[in-house]
Write a structure and sequence with these properties.
- By secondary structure, the chain is an alpha/beta fold.
- Strand 1, helix 4 and strand 2 form a beta-alpha-beta unit.
- Helix 2 runs antiparallel to helix 5 and helix 3 runs parallel beside helix 4.
Length: about 220
């Protein structure tokens, strides 16, 4: 079963929020359309326009200059973060699909942010392990295979600067995290991830009811 944003925020309220939030621009709308046309049912994996706006605003407000993304799909979140980073910023994107990230590259170029993005096609944990030991990040976004969420988090946390932020997508999972009878592997992994982060004394966190649930994490000290 695919996650549905309307299971987190009801449809009427979601429409009101969209109407009173900054709308996607021409490039972002084009990316949404192309994603729907070329990926079919997988288009649900794309973040919502409201999430993109939030990521861009938070990235800019933090003055972030280095970022990493685990799971890029067709590039909407990367486009948003790259805009927030500004011309001097750099974003490393980790994904395993040449096909879907080709759509991303096309739209990053249209948006004028392609020179800020370093796309690496390989398993993300391998990419992280191969990074220079002194490379640290101001912002990270995790939105990939759910069963590896804890591993991505643990690999990234030592590389985050003290005031850095980690965003993690799908942490409410259409409210399925509430259903202890649901033993789907992704649901079980997300419940375990949420418990892991909430109990981690190294960080403070909050789950935001935006999209399918976005957890925001920052080091506690």
């Amino acid at each position: 079963m695919a996650p549905s944003r309307s299971d987190v925020v009801d449809t009427e309220l979601a429409e009101y929020i969209a109407l009173h939030s900054t709308a996607p621009d021409d490039v972002q709308r084009r990316l949404m359309t192309v994603t729907e046309e070329r990926t079919g049912g997988y288009a649900r994996m794309q973040i919502g326009g409201d999430q993109g706006t939030m990521f861009e605003m938070v990235t800019r407000a933090m003055g972030a200059r280095t970022a990493i993304e685990i799971g890029t799909f067709t590039g909407y979140s990367a486009l948003s973060i790259a805009r927030g980073l500004g011309p001097e910023g750099r974003l490393i994107c980790c994904d395993v699909s040449e096909e879907w990230t080709a759509i991303a590259r096309e739209h990053w170029a249209l948006a004028g942010v392609a020179d800020r993005i370093d796309l690496r096609i390989a398993p993300a944990l391998d990419t992280i392990a191969a990074l220079p030991p002194d490379l640290h990040f101001d912002l990270a976004f995790i939105d990939a295979d759910k069963t590896n969420y804890v591993h991505y988090y643990e690999a990234l946390l030592p590389r985050m600067r003290p005031q850095a932020v980690i965003f993690v997508d799908n942490t409410l999972w259409s409210r399925r995290v509430l259903d202890d009878v649901d033993t789907d592997a992704d649901t079980v992994a997300l419940r375990a991830f949420n418990r892991h982060v909430a109990a981690d004394p190294r960080v403070r966190c909050v789950i935001l009811p935006i999209g399918d649930g976005v957890t925001m994490i920052q080091q506690a000290s």
